[in-house]
Write a structure and sequence with these properties.
With about 350 residues, the chain is of the alpha/beta class. The chain has twelve helices and seven strands. It has two domains: about 90 residues, no CATH class; about 210 residues, P-loop containing nucleotide triphosphate hydrolases (Rossmann fold).
Length: about 350
């Protein structure tokens, strides 16, 4: 590229104050398709080259979008181009996104949650562990013992011994989840009342324990469960945590690994029973792409439903189609001040 093309500036003519084209901004928008940051920036660079080759001082938003779609299709494929088209159509969805990510300890919920929030421009990311910590400060171990142990140790804090046919760990976890779900439902209520998008992630996001239907007209809820089916792959996640310098010792998770796997089976069964998608986390790139696909599908369905119903007569949105087990690969927040909370 010549010195002239490197220093040339392209203005987006129909944006406020003739905002200049930005590779970084476009790359962040392209990441909504599910592409990695590096590939998104590659797309943005190619878009800039093509715009400069036209030797026009300005471009419209529609022309920029068309060029971006063309480049995405050529460099990444039709799937990602389709997601970008969907993003263009639903960027101004008039309700907040409430994304609920469940799954057992160590399956990658936090990583997926923070990355998803960054790509969708959602600035509020809340872990259910934070909710539990607040509740621990208010409720003593004598009042609510299961709140004061880890999810995979909940059987050690039951007030009464279970019956012979009952699974003590599942019973303790259910009691713990029921308590934490009070906070989860309060966050969902707040998102609906304030119109703010949020990502809620954690082991206590268990289908059947949180309520979104009451706010179906005011939010777009996208719940899903993350799983790691391969035991050794799941176990390796805890070693990776220790290598990354996390304060939580991996040995405690390894010691409780059998319980963690049992809880994963229970959480997946709850997802299947309530028609909530289960997304296997075999590789991060594939999993985040599958999650992006899911969010785009739900947002597109919501936007299409809103367009098809005349103003003032909109009906309560129906239940989402059952897509319980989604192989990997297969909206936007209303706030844009930052990435994650």
């Amino acid at each position: 590229m010549t010195e002239r093309t490197r220093t040339a500036q392209i203005v987006i003519s129909d944006r406020e104050s003739g905002m200049p084209f930005s590779k970084g901004l476009l790359a962040s928008q392209v990441m909504v398709t599910g592409l990695s940051p590096s590939r998104s920036f590659q797309v943005a660079e190619e878009v800039e080259i093509r715009l400069l080759e036209r030797r026009h001082a300005s471009v419209t938003s529609a022309e920029l979008a068309a060029t971006a779609i063309e480049v995405i299709r050529e460099l990444a494929g039709e799937r990602y181009a389709t997601n970008y088209v969907r993003w263009q159509q639903i960027e101004h969805l008039d309700v907040p996104l409430v994304i609920l990510i469940g799954g057992a300890t160590g399956v990658g919920k936090s990583t997926i949650g923070t990355q998803l929030a960054a790509r969708l421009g959602i600035v509020r990311v809340i872990a259910t562990d934070a909710i539990r910590e607040v509740m621990r400060a208010m409720l003593s171990p004598e009042m609510m013992p299961t709140l004061h142990v880890s999810s995979f140790q909940a059987d050690t804090a039951l007030r009464e011994p279970p019956t012979k046919t009952a699974d003590a760990l599942t019973l303790g976890f259910r009691e713990q989840t029921a308590a934490v779900s009070v906070g989860i439902n309060a966050l969902i209520d707040r998102a609906a009342d304030q119109g703010t998008s949020i990502v809620i992630e954690g082991a206590h996001v268990v289908p059947g324990f949180f309520e979104t239907d009451a706010h179906a007209e005011r939010i777009l809820a996208v719940p899903f469960v993350v799983s790691v089916d391969d035991e050794e792959a799941h176990r390796s996640h805890f070693a990776a945590r220790e290598d990354a310098g996390e304060t939580r010792p991996a040995a405690r998770y390894v010691a409780g690994f059998e319980g963690i796997r049992r809880l994963q089976r229970y959480i997946k069964s709850q997802a299947l029973a309530h028609g909530i998608p289960v997304i296997p986390n075999h590789s991060f790139d594939q999993s985040i792409a599958a999650v992006i696909d899911l969010v785009m599908e739900r947002a597109t369905e919501r936007a299409a439903a809103a367009r098809s119903v005349p103003d003032g007569t909109r009906e309560r949105p129906g239940a989402a189609p059952d897509r319980t087990e989604r192989p990997p690969g297969n909206h936007p927040g209303r706030e844009k001040e930052g990435t994650t909370a």
